[in-house]
């Protein structure tokens, strides 16, 4: 299951919708990126996302903060962007440093601008099946599974990983699609025994080649949401591909979907905010 082609389709639609907003309302959907410090990988990720915004006709605004920025200063910065009508979506790049309360920082993002799906409000919406923005990687995975016609209702899904931005929201979205979900993590005993019964495996733990083909049920669908140095995922691709009916490669599988969903949700956010503003002004 390659995400490159589907992401290109989503990006084309995003660009078209953004241009329509500019033509109709004179407003360009704008994503603000916030980066604390100068971690090379984070700098690269933010630059890539801003470049893609520009390619699709979205506006960007970047706020770079020094590594020693404290939680209250970061929260104030994000709150300012949340109240800025010219900003429609906010992306807070992580990690931010051990001295920062990440949850407080994420939750400073107004839910209507949480296009990365990282706030407590967004997680609650995903868990309860209410309107809101999905976490981008889990949301992208759901779109990819739908695109390839993978049935989720009644299937046994095993999510390996329980992070608040990937594993937990992934489990919530799968439950919302009527899958039976098992969440495994670092304290799980005998991971392979859980994998053996899975119709769908989502590996999202950040450990290279943790999931191997010998542990998989023949015909399982395997989604590798991990990315480790050397373009290595959380799944041993060669052995898993011999057992799986569908499998995502690394790179070229889940990664392109994450950015595509982020930018699509930025345009969604702009449309929703403009509707509210229009209703208020009447």
From TrEMBL:
The entry's keywords: Amino-acid biosynthesis, Histidine biosynthesis, Hydrolase, Methionine biosynthesis, Multifunctional enzyme, NADP, One-carbon metabolism, Oxidoreductase, Purine biosynthesis
CC annotations in GO: cytosol
Positions annotated to bind NADP(+): 161-163
Pathway named in the protein's UniProt entry: One-carbon metabolism; tetrahydrofolate interconversion
Recorded catalytic activity of this chain's protein: (6R)-5,10-methenyltetrahydrofolate + H2O = (6R)-10-formyltetrahydrofolate + H(+); (6R)-5,10-methylene-5,6,7,8-tetrahydrofolate + NADP(+) = (6R)-5,10-methenyltetrahydrofolate + NADPH
GO MF entries: methenyltetrahydrofolate cyclohydrolase activity; methylenetetrahydrofolate dehydrogenase (NADP+) activity
UniProt similarity note: Belongs to the tetrahydrofolate dehydrogenase/cyclohydrolase family.
Organism lineage: Bacteria, Bacillati, Actinomycetota, Actinomycetes, Mycobacteriales
HAMAP family: THF_DHG_CYH
Protein's UniProt keywords contain Amino-acid biosynthesis: yes
Gene name as annotated: folD
Role: Catalyzes the oxidation of 5,10-methylenetetrahydrofolate to 5,10-methenyltetrahydrofolate and then the hydrolysis of 5,10-methenyltetrahydrofolate to 10-formyltetrahydrofolate.
Top-level division of the source organism's lineage: Bacteria
Tetrahydrofolate dehydrogenase/cyclohydrolase catalytic domain segment(s): 2-116
Assigned EC number: 1.5.1.5, 3.5.4.9
Quaternary structure, from the entry: Homodimer.
Designated name of the protein: Bifunctional protein FolD
A GO BP annotation: L-histidine biosynthetic process
Domain Tetrahydrofolate dehydrogenase/cyclohydrolase NAD(P)-binding: 135-273
UniProt keyword Methyltransferase, yes or no: no
Cross-referenced CDD domains: NAD_bind_m-THF_DH_Cyclohyd (cd01080)
């Amino acid at each position: 299951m390659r995400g490159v082609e589907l992401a290109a389709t989503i990006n084309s639609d995003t660009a078209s919708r953004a241009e329509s907003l500019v033509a109709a309302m004179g407003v360009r959907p704008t994503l603000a990126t916030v980066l604390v410090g100068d971690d090379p990988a984070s700098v690269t990720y933010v630059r890539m996302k801003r470049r893609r915004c520009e390619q699709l006709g979205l506006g960007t605004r970047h706020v770079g903060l020094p590594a020693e920025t404290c939680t209250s200063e970061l929260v104030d910065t994000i709150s300012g962007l949340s109240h800025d009508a010219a900003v429609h979506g906010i992306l807070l790049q992580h990690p931010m440093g051990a001295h920062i309360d990440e949850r407080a920082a994420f939750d400073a993002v107004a839910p209507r601008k949480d296009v990365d799906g990282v706030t407590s409000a967004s997680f609650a919406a995903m868990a309860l099946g209410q309107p809101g923005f999905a976490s981008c990687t889990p949301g992208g995975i759901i779109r990819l599974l739908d695109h390839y016609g993978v049935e989720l209702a009644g299937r046994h899904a095993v999510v390996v990983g329980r992070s608040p931005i990937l594993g937990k929201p992934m489990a919530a979205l799968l439950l919302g699609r009527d899958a039976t979900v098992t969440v495994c993590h670092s304290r799980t005993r005998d991971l392979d025994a859980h994998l053996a019964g899975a119709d769908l495996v989502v590996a999202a733990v950040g450990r290279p080649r943790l999931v191997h083909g010998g542990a998989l049920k023949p015909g399982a669908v395997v989604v590798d949401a991990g990315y480790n140095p050397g373009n290595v995922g959380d799944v041993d691709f060669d052995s898993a591909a011999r057992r799986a009916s569908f499998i995502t490669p690394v790179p070229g599988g889940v990664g392109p979907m994450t950015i595509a969903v982020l930018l699509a949700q930025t345009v969604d956010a702009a449309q929703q905010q403009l509707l509210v503003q229009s209703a208020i002004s009447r």
